[in-house]
Amino acid sequence: MIALIIIVGLIVLAVLIFAGYYNSLISLRNRIDNAWSQIDVQIKRRHDLIPNLVETVKGYAAHEREVLEHVTEARSRAITAGSIAEQSDAENQLTQTLRSLFAVAENYPELKANQNFLALQEELSGTESKIAFARQFYNDSVYRYNTAIQSFPGNIMAGIFGFKERQYFEAEPESRGPVRVEF
Question: Is the pTM for the entire model greater than 0.90?
Answer without folding.
Answer: no
